[in-house]
Design goal:
alpha+beta, three-stranded antiparallel β-sheet, 210 residues, Ubiquitin-like (UB roll), Alpha-Beta Plaits, 3 domains
């Protein structure tokens, strides 16, 4: 059942199904297996037959995956960083949701540069502009629809001097394409010296690894 109809992380169990009848069978099977192993669930912490729910900072629904409003608010309310640890905390939080942001790694370059060892602290106008830009892009994150194996996948890649980016999308019934994930990563060491076409090839390679 694992990764077929359930996802387990520590003591959190998420059961998913294609329809209500199938879901009842899956729930019963999970409860039977827990009982057989003398493992029990606290009723007050359980939610059954939900069309949508929050799971580890995401909202899962039939429409797709989107961010929780309180997480977006936390980003918007984030105070201006005063030291390196503040930048690290902010980037750690936003990076968790980078799959919603196109070219995330490219956007945050001025901020990540401040976290490099030996870099003097100088939160200048460019860093402030990046900080505010990143806040704003999180207010317009799209719903990432669920991947469908029977639909054509579209892979769009790009590369800059310092990062690579990919948009993974699928065709909908109306012929339009809609994103299922945004991927991006910074270039490091030898990758920074790649020719443009090699950087673009790396973006394609990383997209297919995903």
């Amino acid at each position: 059942m694992l990764d077929v109809s359930i996802v387990v992380y520590l003591d959190n169990i998420l059961i998913y199904s294609n329809n209500p009848m199938e879901h009842r069978k899956h729930v019963c099977e999970v409860l039977h297996r827990l009982r057989a192993n003398r493992l029990y669930c606290k009723g007050s912490k359980c939610k059954f037959h939900q069309d949508s729910m929050e799971y580890f900072g995401y909202i899962l629904s039939p429409e797709g995956l989107h961010m929780c409003e309180d997480k977006v608010k936390a980003i918007l309310d984030w105070p201006v960083p005063q030291k390196v640890k503040d930048i690290q905390s902010f980037l750690s939080f936003t990076n968790f949701y980078h799959c919603f942001i196109h070219e995330y790694s490219d956007i945050v370059i001025p901020l990540t540069h401040l976290t490099c060892k030996g870099t003097p602290w100088k939160f200048n106008d460019k860093c402030m502009a990046t900080f505010n830009e990143l806040k704003q892009v999180f207010t317009h994150t799209p719903i990432l629809i669920h991947w469908a194996p029977n639909r054509q996948l579209v892979v769009e890649t790009d590369a800059s001097d310092y990062a690579i980016a990919t948009i993974l999308s699928i065709y909908l019934e109306d012929g339009k394409i809609h994103p299922i994930a945004f991927l991006s990563q910074s270039l490091h060491n030898a990758e920074l010296n790649y020719d443009t076409y090699d950087k673009e090839l790396l973006a394609i390679f990383e997209a297919f690894k995903y």
